[in-house]
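Our preliminary data section would be incomplete without showing what the modeling component actually yields. Below, a chain of 372 amino acids is followed by its predicted structure, encoded as tokens that our downstream tools consume directly.
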Amino acid sequence: MVTVKRILVIYTGGTFGMLKNEKGVLVPQKDIEHRVIRKLPQLHDNEYWKQNLHGTDMEEYVALPDGKDTDIKVLYKIYEYDELKDSSDFNNDDWLKMARDIKRFYHDYDGFVVLHGTDTTAYGASVLSYMLETVGKTVVLTGAQVPIFQPRSDGNNNLFCALLVAATLHIPEVTVFFGAKLFRGTRVKKVSNTRIQAFDSPNFPALLEARTTLDIEPKMLIHPAGSVPDVCQIHDQLSHKVYVLKVAPTITPEIIRAVFNGMDGVLLETYGNGNIPIKRKEIYKEIERAVKNKVLVVNVTQCINGTVLGKAIYETGLLLVECGVVPAFDMTAEAALAKLSYVLTKTELSYEQKVELMKTNIRGELNNPNHN
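Predicted structure:
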């Protein structure tokens, strides 16, 4: 008995569907379904479609070719946005739209794949992870380093595997599939703009690696099997008054003041274990003043791998702890910024409760040794 699984693919733009324009630069292309995807045997079983879907109310679906020893037939529909963007143009409003669309179509499909530009995938995956407060189905973001129109595209396999994950594995959270690995949405980071393996998960292992089969250890999931109801509950608000300030040797009080002005939250990217220069007291004073004015300041390391703990290791990090800057622990900068945007719109919480929530693991984004 073959089980049919229906997946919605939300095509938002990005390198995946790009072609060069008259100026010789890559731009997103419309109608990738008919221009390329239905022509690729790896992504479309045209014989199955002609025999089973053509002329029916299911003919808008694309049929994924069968894998070996499978009793699941994957059908997917491509929902293409009217405005396709380069990922560099993505912002909170775009991710709000994606979350709302997942909720809107939630009961029509068995899982969701988002074709997303790679440059901001780590931001998008983190933001969607927080906004989708409850999601009982698998959500996978993927894309490509080389456009699907080109023979060497990695997009074919990325989309194929993302569809299989969404259809055959029950992972009730937001994930990213890229370069043969599936990552947690709040743990992923783009680490290369040239390698096919563009993403990594610096402080947390990949959820799975695609081999001859796609298998996942249940203990890797945030929620045990059967513990999440099959519903979609979203928090569709994000603060736009957040930004990132990177500590560098040339930082000045004027820079800090300019960045913090009008912000409700600031992510402070510091050296090493969370350190700033302490010989220049005027820098520290600007940060202290912001915290006293209820700006939520979060301390994240500039290192790809590492942590900022609630207890400073060096004297250069102690001042930030003492004045109330919130440690990010082992969160990525992308996950910390997304969480900050989310937490700040929790209007029912006090400032102190928002601080506590930033230090609490809610989507698998951090390991805080002081919390259970």
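The chain has a mean pLDDT of 93. The longest strand covers residues 72-85. Preliminary results of this kind motivate Aim 1 of the renewal.
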